[in-house]
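User: Structure please.
Assistant: Input sequence and predicted structure:
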Amino acid sequence: MRKHGEQLAQQELAGALGRRDDCEDELRLAEQLAGGAMTGQRAATGRVQSAEELQSHQAWLERTEQAHATVAENLTRHQREVERRRAALTAAARETKALDRLELRRRSEFERNAAQRDGYVTDEVALNVFRGNAA
């Protein structure tokens, strides 16, 4: 049961890492689009354009910058999620380790008590055999 909790935490961390990596890819794409829009805006300022074209370029630039900002916020959220999942995995691993140590300690205690009981029984049998031979 405790191993399942740790495995679940590992799977959740893996999922969070995958989502973060996907978001990083999206951010790189958004950076490229924003950079392309900025380059296009600079190139457009050197030539004569209508007001409509200038507004269109500006709107495109603003949309790409907003998309970039949104993806950057998502990446920050995914990074926080990865940190939470990593902390949960650490806690689950620590709990599993503590429970394993407790189980080992209890098993050792049980085996020690069983050996002691076996010793008592062996001593009792030997005592009875000795008493029988002495009589």
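The chain has one domain: 2-102.
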